[in-house]
Amino acid sequence: MASPFRILAISGSLRRASFNRGLVRAARESTPEGVAIETAEVAALPHYDADVEEAGDPDAVTELKERIRAADALLIATPEYNSSLPGALKNAIDWASRPYGASVLAGKPAAVMGASAGGGGTARAQPTLKRVLTAAGCCVLMEPEVLVGGAHSRFDTDGNLEDDAVRDEIRALIAALVEFARQPSD
Amino acid sequence: MASPFRILAISGSLRRASFNRGLVRAARESTPEGVAIETAEVAALPHYDADVEEAGDPDAVTELKERIRAADALLIATPEYNSSLPGALKNAIDWASRPYGASVLAGKPAAVMGASAGGGGTARAQPTLKRVLTAAGCCVLMEPEVLVGGAHSRFDTDGNLEDDAVRDEIRALIAALVEFARQPSD
Fold first, then answer.
1. Cβ contacts of A50 on chain B, cutoff 8 Å
2. What H or E segment, with its residue span, contains residue A7?
3. Which of B2, B112, B150, B159 sits CB 3.0–4.6 Å from B17 for a disulfide?
4. Which ipTM was obtained for this model?
């Protein structure tokens, strides 16, 4: 049996019942055959500090880098804080992109989705996140977009997705990510 | 004697000898009469987590909010990581902007400067930071810009600024920030 296509999924929101954790769970529940979705946490990473880095990567950084290296693609669910991605998520990308010239993100296919209480559904945060991922060296899937606005009416109070149309969008995003990652790069 | 105009300055880079800490020190050394520049650190803040917030702001968050509330204006020095501001700095802005409707950043005048080793001098990070500050409610001074590229040749190895032209630019930025903050808002 062939090895599964491995996707590492990350929620940029840390709260237990977050909508974006809910999107990641929905992705895992919708995993197509031949694909495995694991999750990584960004909460345990310290703030990026070049002095800390020079003394050697903290264990949580080493672990995140190893998990990204082992993955065939990334799937990131972002909330929107002040029109952009959360600091904790940006911090994880910054650590993963270091050191210069040896980023585990280089050439890594990545897709983005996001949920917010407001109407935009992270329409401002996602382009910023895609720009940051591109700068960090990822090959970013631009479409389809999964923008989940009005999240209070689409998730239960534990953050479980209750909207089948959004589940279909997530399925389509995963399929597009796998196809995108398998394209020859030259 | 009138109370001084109080500026709270923040470096978005955490390393001890950082260029952006050097910009903040240069600002303090160039403080005009009637102005006081204090500094705040963002390193002690935990990652923003709505569950943590709901249990009550951590002490470092309370302290940062009080210091921002007491300041007449903010002056932020940002490095550029992956074309954007550092996660730790974004995290501090996110905490300060909470809770919704009671942000200590609402209406707060803010100016931005930045230094980087590369040629752009944080030309990509600064517009993103200004957009984030605006979303958080700040009144952002758009010009003059202080973009310090090629930082290795403008700072010593301890991060002390050694470029008088940049010192003049910082002086002009502080003067513009004070004038901007004193404009009537209606």
1. 13-15, 18
2. strand A5-11
3. B159
4. 0.96
Cβ partners under 8 Å of residue A55, min gap 6: none
- Counted domains in chain A: 1
> Are the Cβ atoms of A132 and B93 closer than 8 angstroms?
no
Shortest distance between the Cα of A1 and any Cα of chain B, in A, equals: 39
Chain B hits for A82, CB-CB cut-off 8 Å, are 90, 93-94, 97, 132-133, 135-136
A6 pLDDT tier (thresholds 50, 70, 90): very high
CATH code where residue A139 lies: 3.40.50.360
Q: Round to whole Å and give the CA distance between B36 and B22.
A: 17
Examine the pLDDT at B185 and tell me if it is beyond 70.
no
Distance from the Cα of B9 to chain A's closest Cα (Å) equals 19
For helices A164-182 and A19-29, the axis angle rounded to 10 degrees is: 70
Give the C-alpha separation, A150 to A130, whole Å.
22
B186 has pLDDT over 90: no
Spatial contact of A17 and A157, defined as CB atoms under 8 Å apart: yes
Its pTM stands at: 0.97
| Alpha-carbon gap, residue A119 to A128, rounded angstroms | 18
Number of cross-chain residue pairs from A and B with Cβ atoms under 8 Å apart: 120
CA-wise closest residue to B151 among B119, B126, B129: B119
Render pLDDT for A152-170 as a digit per residue (tens, 0 to 9).
999 999 999 999 999 999 9
State the Cα–Cα distance between residues A141 and A181, nearest whole angstrom: 9
Domain hosting A96: range is 5-182
- Using the beta-carbon criterion (under 8 Å), do B47 and A14 form an inter-chain contact? yes
